[in-house]
Amino acid sequence: MVKQPQPPLAPRHPKSFTRHGITITDDYAWLKDDRWQDVLRDPSLLNAEIRSYLEAENVYTDAVLGGTAALQSTLVAEMRGRIKEDDSSVPSPDGPFEYFQRYREGGQHEMIGRSRRDGSDTCILIDGDALAAKSSYFRFGGARHSNDHRLEAWSADVNGSEYFTIRVRDWETSIDTDDTVEQTSGEAVWTADSTAFFYVRLDDNHRPRQVYLHRIGAAQSEDTLVYEEKDVGWFTHIHESASGRYCVIAGGDHETSEQRLIDLREPTAPPRLIAPRETGLQYSVYDRGDTLYILTNADGAIDFKIVETPLSSSGRASWRGLIPHRDGVYILDVELYANHLVRLERANALPSVVIRDLRTGDEHAVRFDEAAYSLGTIGGYEFETTRLRYAYSSMTTPTEVYDYDMESRERILRKRQEIPSGHNPADYFVTRIMAKSHDGAEVPVSILHRRDLARDGKAPLLLYGYGSYGHAIPASFASNRLSLVDRGFVYAIAHVRGGSDKGWGWYLDGKREKKVNTFDDFAAAAKALIDANYTSVGGIVAHGGSAGGMLMGAVANRAGDLFAGFIAEVPFVDVLNTMLDDSLPLTPPEWPEWGNPITDAQAFRTILGYSPYDNVAAKNYPAILAMGGLTDPRVTYWEPAKWIARLRSTMTGGGPVLLRTNMGAGHGGASGRFNRLDEVALAYAFALWCVGRAGP
Fold this sequence. Notes:
The protein is of the alpha+beta class. It is 19% helix and 35% strand. Strands 30-31-33-32-34-35-37-39 form an eight-stranded mixed β-sheet, with helices on both faces. Strands 7-8-9-10-11-12-13 form a seven-stranded antiparallel β-sheet, with no helix packed on it. Helix 3 packs across helix 13 (675-690). It starts with 14 loop residues before the first strand and ends in a 6-residue tail after the last helix.
């Protein structure tokens, strides 16, 4: 008889508090290191008892899934075989050069380079692999060349905590200058004369609230504070305006926004406010000469509209309608060029690109015919152009990048994603069904399976979901999924409320007091797939990450009997405790999404009613794999750790429940395009193991 591995049992150290007349006892609060801010910067400072427990959980997970080791290796090899190793982006032109990112054969990290516009004189300036060799973790944050093409500001994170250091490299010498700007969000916007750049500094609680101007050759201590956001619930970001004339300071939370412009020719001038913040008003600004184009939800435009206004008088009183609001047609984004305005729209979970000639007002759309697909524009450096670049894919069609002439309407294929090990789209089938939720709402479900699949209810199925922040899950191509589909799985995406798949109203119906709609939509999708004979009860493995991990935890509590297992990556499962801790990086900015349980008794009760950690019950649970990152500033490592500890001590049967913590990474998991495959392979091996298909 093979001896079964024994799970670690986390000791209980009860800690109680009372809020709004309700007393909460947390047995596992001790798993949060009191010095968590220091641990983000230096993981070696983690409390020894906590480290010992996390490592014991990793050992247990490895022991339980030890029989899948060969399968995991096979999965990694398959997934790597679908990656073109010496891949390169389509070069993006700017003046005399075109800039690109490229991978070498066997390389984990991109290289940043450029060539002359005719393709000659190719130069690699920054080698990600060489930089990554100096640390156990490495991830680029951003890279932007100066307007005179002489310097490149680039940033990197070397411990997974998303504190990025900006450095400056000379294109002629390929040597970094002495400029080192630390504790930033990673982006840089150059001044017009290329002698300085703007950046956003993160505070000690990891919040982006201050914009600074750094002059080349100066110490960071000499940098000038340009703007500081006083509201701790607001995050601040910067980017170049559409024409490249301004630095846009964009601030906001999940409900309200406010933007300012700094003329890059006059970087010391005070930022110009476009329109003062109004609770619930969102807007973003695009410039063209003396006119601003604004994407906004003003005046009840739930799915957004586009207005225009003079640059000299940008307040709301001057906003004039250009593209009216249409219910159910959500305007996601705008790209503005010298003579054309491009908007990306989504209706009923399907996107389209609409191009408007600003000289004539004529419009035409770029659409596709597949049942489910993904479409997105790709911004460039040039404003005076008729070229629009966009990317298209579907769950069967690898990504295609096109250059589209907005005047002649000529379309040129610039790149088709290569699958070196081979891929025939005709071998697969994509469709979409609608699942009826508890209140009659129709939830789109995108489905991928092999064309020869028998719909007899016997196939295992992986159901993916997210459903928060208005983030839609596109029905795009992801080659890793084929490792499950080729093993007989159906792969499905539930476009649940809380996302904006069916418009901004779809998002509003899945937040705060309506959050449970997200969970019920996901369960409804599972039931619809069973009713349609794609699978059967106990044949579904659910998968989600971050806020989608919260979805996993909530559904495990509410409808776990439908599922064979749950994969929860960096899961936001300790919702109540996190939203009560206003020192955590994301807590104040998250209150508009979830509610503020500190001051609002109803929000407290609502969150308490669904928070996965607080609703673990004495009942059977299916198998669960939770995956976290020690230096994650978004979903802190102790959330999945506490959740698994409570599950193990409370559940009456089922399982097992497993925890894998990456001790050297953060929210995005392992760095490097191949190292990340190890984590995907673990998740997929677990899915196969849950449905009895992990054998040879």
